[in-house]
Design brief:
Elements: E1 45-50, E2 65-69, E3 75-79, E4 82-85, E5 89-93, E6 100-103, E7 109-114, E8 120-126, E9 130-138, E10 143-152, E11 159-168, E12 176-181, E13 184-189, E14 208-215, E15 218-226, E16 231-234, E17 248-253, E18 266-276, E19 284-287, E20 294-299, E21 313-316, E22 322-324, E23 330-335, H1 340-352, E24 361-365, E25 370-375, H2 389-392, E26 397-402, E27 405-410, H3 413-426, E28 428-430, E29 433-436, E30 439-443, E31 449-454, H4 461-472, E32 479-483, H5 503-515, E33 519-526, H6 531-534, H7 557-574, E34 578-582, H8 606-623, E35 627-631, H9 650-659, E36 665-669, H10 679-685, E37 690-694, H11 698-711, E38 715-718, H12 731-750, H13 763-771, E39 780-785, E40 794-795, H14 810-813, E41 822-823, E42 831-834, E43 837-840, E44 845-850, E45 865-872, E46 876-883, E47 892-900, E48 905-911, E49 929-933, E50 947-954, E51 962-969, E52 975-984
Parallel strand pairs: 19-45, 23-24, 31-32, 31-38, 32-33, 33-34, 34-35, 35-36, 36-37, 37-38
Antiparallel strand pairs: 1-7, 2-3, 3-4, 5-6, 5-11, 7-8, 8-9, 9-10, 10-18, 11-17, 12-13, 12-14, 14-15, 15-18, 16-17, 20-39, 21-30, 22-29, 23-25, 25-27, 26-27, 26-30, 28-29, 39-52, 40-44, 41-42, 42-43, 44-52, 45-51, 46-50, 46-52, 47-48, 47-51, 49-50
Helix pairs in contact: 1-3, 4-5, 11-12, 12-13
Length: about 1000
């Protein structure tokens, strides 16, 4: 679990036991570049101050090399616009990654820059523990040198992890390399994609002195000068967050490789040489296809039934659908006093579907079961049918829809509520109301606890209410861990931040949770991650280490009294069954225990203090009828867990687990994509119940959920770490974190077998549809599929040069997906439907757009611009597309210029992570829908998707005839492929 929660959360270490440091690596927002005149500069020296988060420098000029110091991201290096180094990093840590002594993300730096033909950038950073110096120098148009020097400033045990560069992996994939190493020469070919995530196994040339690549942008060599081994490993399969924004090779020292001793500086120097390939010509092409309109260019009639989470048993019947209209009768049979089902029925039919049905008739009874009847079901299910599986689960339900009506029956009101959420996904729009296909569903959850974790904020209160009502309830989430320590507590209002949520708004969210059968659970972080106590300079007398106010003094009676007062307020607001006390990463910052603290007790270790604090607060909560939850990382050792293991040894971990009260629930967080999680069994053998805590990586959710089911864990908690005060604007950068709620809800309910890439939906696309309560209101729409064959000059097999199966040839040969059906048009080309849109498909060829600067990152036959003469109106323009290479989020890849007959123009930008994404990237473009996905092959990993997406652009002037569409390549580091284009009326 990431506990460096900041407005922008940044990457952390590589060591396998440090995923607690994982945070969001945020790349700067980038827009599509516009042409600009070259600027002349004169040689000068400048000095500037740089914070950890800010970018205070500008690229050097009059050189193909561009070096920037990006504060928290360290150094970035590009050649003619193509990134070579995406960032650098530096950490000086306590032994075993038990804490940070120097964090390159959070330091202030002094920068000195010389401008000219061969510019130089010098950077220095300091804190009380470490001094760092960098020197970056373009030697000439071919060569660049990076030099680092670091030195401890005090005599403390420490280790250094330094990455001189996160090298762009795209130019290197499947390309030959040669190396001179400590043990001789080595040669080979970089894998199209690594087979393992092991960092040492992926080291290209152990103990290398020089590396040379026949890269896609030219001959690239790296010479290393270092006192110790420098590793250059393929991190494309690395699951930790620092490696996810774009494919990289990590170059530098891992912690423990380079000894770090007081009085002995350490140094590393890299010399990079690039003999760049010439800039190739990219033609511009103009075509005028014959556009033949068809009535069903868009159609949702062929969609299969899809319910998220997937029901345990679903059987469709070949019968006419049931039609709901303004006269449909509704009967609710519910336990006495239960009003939530009535509210849910009215919300679904009247608010979401806008059906003016009669008010439901409600009959209450004195038992627990519930039933909802819509219309006149042909057969009622007896409520005392105890032998069926769905009846044996409290949250199970039975749903049957026939031409005469719909019945939902459950042993509880909560189960009937979940049946209603399934019905909401079955309903289809109809001119007189809605249609429900004839189906029989028997359903129940695989895991009893299906929770999500998030932070509330004043600005986000409306967003979170909408999220609870529309997303969490719809996907059968039944618990919310709401991290609330930053709320405006009366105990000390001065601790609050400007965007801290009020108690009244928090109370309203709690009520919305319970209205939707969701248990609200407050999380108040203690004794570490207690920065909330010390915000605005408050309560520093309670800090264990006032110089680094991170954890409070457990031995100080005033600390516990203060915490109990805040917990009392949380209990009053939440009225909870459970309360989460954090208890993670307690030793991450500062001294804990601190010998200089007046309450220091000799002989008490960090483990003693943590367990003492837990036992005290556990007893205090138990007296109030509240069960305790904590994170599990302080209770497992590195040898026992795949990550998130912060006990110093196996013996100490066992001792700590033995001292934890048996009714404390352990939320065992691990964020790597491991196929096994041994800590679940460790906690189980210690007599402790667990909840598997996942983050946003789809494979982590898949594997950890299945491990939770196998070990008998209570369930899954899907966490978010998108800042202390997220609101709806956070979705612009962190949609994947919230969309993971849908994946977690599905896997936790169904524990389905499919790997995430094989799921029949895209969670990133489903999220906005659910959040905004969007339903398809136009089942069919006319339009004109465009014949792209005159511009499709790139063969599917040859487009990247990654070898057999690493291409899109399966697009033309593989069996169709569920969204894909062949249909006839008046064109001679085959037509297939993807994402409800019909596209004409060129024979085994694609249109590829690339800028000349992309060099061989784009295949032969790529265009710089494609102009399509149209002379017709369109309400929407749909494209079937993908990027060729996975690049940083918010990178503008291509642009569409729409020229109207009246001389005006509109522009549409294709931006990575927003409305387009690479063909082999995880689903992370919220404005794009997965259209086609290739089946796995023996040569390709099962967890690497091959995807083409469907994105629809809303024309702001649908009444204006369009003269032409001009597709332009923009990014120098990738290309964009256009597989299909359809104009929709």
């Amino acid at each position: 679990m990431m506990k460096f929660v900041m407005p922008f959360m940044l990457n952390s270490s590589l060591a396998r036991n440090i995923s607690p440091l994982i945070a969001l690596l945020c790349f700067g927002m980038m827009t599509c570049p516009q042409p600009a005149a070259a600027q002349n500069t004169t040689t000068q020296n400048t000095t500037a101050q740089s914070s950890a988060a800010g970018v205070t420098t500008t690229p050097i000029s009059r050189s193909p090399w561009q070096i920037q110091w990006q504060g928290a991201r360290g150094a970035t290096l590009s050649y003619d616009g193509i990134p070579l180094i995406r960032q650098s990093s530096l950490y000086v840590v306590k032994p075993g990654w038990t804490g940070l002594l120097f964090d390159g993300r959070n330091q202030k730096y002094e920068l000195t820059r010389g401008r000219g033909e061969h510019p130089i950038l010098s950077v220095t950073g300091d804190n009380e523990s470490f001094h760092a110096e960098y020197r970056f120098e373009a030697l000439d148009a071919r060569r660049f040198r990076l030099h680092f020097k670091g030195e401890l400033k005090r005599d403390v045990p420490a280790a250094i992890e330094y990455s001189a560069g996160y090298f762009n992996a795209n130019p290197l994939a499947n390309r030959p390399f040669r190396a001179v190493t400590k043990d001789g020469t080595k040669s080979g070919t970089i894998a199209a994609y690594p087979a393992t995530s092991d960092q040492y196994a992926n080291d290209v040339a152990p103990h290398f002195r020089s590396l040379e690549f026949d890269s896609r942008i030219g001959r690239l060599s790296i010479e290393a000068r270092s006192q110790s081994r420098v590793i250059f490993f393929d991190a494309r399969r690395e699951a930790q967050e620092w490696a996810r924004p774009a494919p990289i090779f990590w170059c530098g020292w891992l912690a423990g490789m380079q000894p770090l001793t007081f009085g002995q500086p350490v140094e590393m120097e890299l010399t990079i040489t690039l003999d760049a390939l010439p800039v190739p010509p990219r033609p511009q092409l103009v075509v005028r296809p014959i556009l033949r309109p068809i009535p069903n260019a868009q159609s949702s009639r062929e969609r299969p039934i899809q319910i998220i989470p997937r029901p345990q048993r679903l059987q469709a019947a070949p019968l006419p659908p049931f039609q709901l209209n303004a006269k449909t009768r509704i009967l609710i049979l519910a336990p006495r006093g239960e009003i939530r089902l009535t509210r849910a029925v009215q919300k679904l039919l009247r608010e979401e579907r806008r059906l003016t049905t009669p008010a439901p008739r409600v009959r209450h009874h004195d038992q627990a079961w519930a039933r909802i009847e819509i219309g006149r079901p042909a057969l009622r299910t007896s409520a005392d049918r105890h032998k069926v599986l769905w009846w044996s689960h409290k949250e199970g339900y039975f749903l049957r829809a026939t031409p005469g009506g719909i019945e939902i029956t459950s042993p509880s009101a909560q189960g009937a509520f979940y049946g209603l959420q399934t019905l909401a996904q079955l309903l289809e729009p109809h001119q007189s109301g809605a249609l429900c296909p004839a189906v029989t569903i028997e359903d129940w959850p695989s895991l009893p606890f299906r929770g999500v974790h998030w932070f509330p904020s004043a600005s986000g209160a409306g967003f979170h209410k909408k999220m609870i009502e529309r997303v969490l309830s719809r996907h059968k989430i039944n618990a919310c861990v709401i991290q609330s320590e930053a709320a405006r507590w009366d105990t000390n209002p001065k601790m609050a931040a400007p965007n801290s949520i009020s108690k009244d708004d928090l109370r309203a969210l709690v009520q919305v949770c319970r209205e939707n059968f969701i248990e609200p659970i407050p999380l108040i972080n203690v004794p570490g991650h207690a920065e909330w106590m010390f915000r605005n300079g408050q309560n520093l007398d309670l800090a264990e280490d006032p110089q680094t106010p991170y954890a409070y003094s457990v031995n100080n009676p005033k600390s516990l009294l203060f915490v109990q007062q805040v917990l009392d307020e949380a209990i009053e607001v939440f009225q909870p069954k459970y309360l989460h006390l954090g208890h993670d990463e307690v030793t991450m910052h500062g001294r804990f225990p601190n010998p200089e603290n007046p309450f220091y007790e000799s002989g008490k270790s960090a483990g003693d203090l943590v367990i003492e604090n837990l036992r005290h607060l556990h007893g205090w909560l138990k007296e109030r009828g509240v069960q305790t939850m904590i994170w599990g990382d302080m209770l497992i050792a590195p040898e026992e867990g795949v990550d998130a293991a912060h006990a110093p040894s196996t013996e100490e971990a066992k001792r700590r687990r033995a001292l934890v009260p048996r009714d404390v629930i352990i939320t065992d967080w691990h964020y790597g994509s491991n196929e096994s999680y041994p800590s679940l069994e460790l906690f189980k053998s210690a007599g402790l119940s667990t909840i598997a805590a996942t983050w946003h990586t789809p494979l982590n959710i898949h594997f950890f959920t299945r491990a939770a089911k196998a070990s008998g864990a209570r369930g899954v908690l899907q966490t978010t770490w998108a800042g202390y005060f997220p609101d709806e604007s956070t979705l612009n950068s962190e949609a994947r974190q919230f969309a993971a709620f849908i994946l977690a809800g599905d896997y936790a309910w169904s524990t389905r077998q499919e790997m995430p890439p094989a799921l029949p939906y895209d969670a990133i696309s489903e999220w906005p549809r659910a959040l905004n309560a969007r339903t398809e209101t136009i089942p069919e729409r006319g339009g004109a599929p465009v014949d792209l064959s005159p511009a499709a000059h790139v063969n599917a097999e040859d487009w990247l040069g990654l070898g057999p199966d690493w291409d899109l040839s399966a697009f033309f040969t593989a069996p169709t997906m569920h969204f894909q059906t062949k249909a006839a048009t008046s064109s001679a080309l085959p037509a297939r439907r993807y994402g409800d849109v019909l596209f004409n498909i060129a024979d085994n060829r694609f249109v590829v757009l690339a800028s000349p600067q992309a060099r061989s990152l784009a295949p032969a036959g790529a265009l710089n611009q494609l102009t399509i003469e149209t002379d017709r109106t369109a309400r929407e323009i749909a494209v079937l597309h993908a990027g060729l290479w996975h690049v940083a989020r918010n990178t503008c890849i291509a642009r569409l210029l729409v020229d109207y007959n009246d001389g005006t123009q509109s522009t549409w930008e294709l931006v990575q992570g927003r409305n387009t994404s690479a063909w082999n990237a995880d689903a992370n473009a919220p404005e794009a829908q997965r259209g086609w996905m290739a089946p796995p092959t023996p040569r390709t990993p099962r967890d690497v998707p091959f995807v083409l997406r469907v994105t629809r652009w809303q024309n702001p002037h649908p009444e204006k005839p369009i003269a032409r569409l001009r597709f332009q390549a923009v990014s120098p580091e990738t290309a964009w492929t256009l597989g299909g284009l359809t104009l929709l009326n």
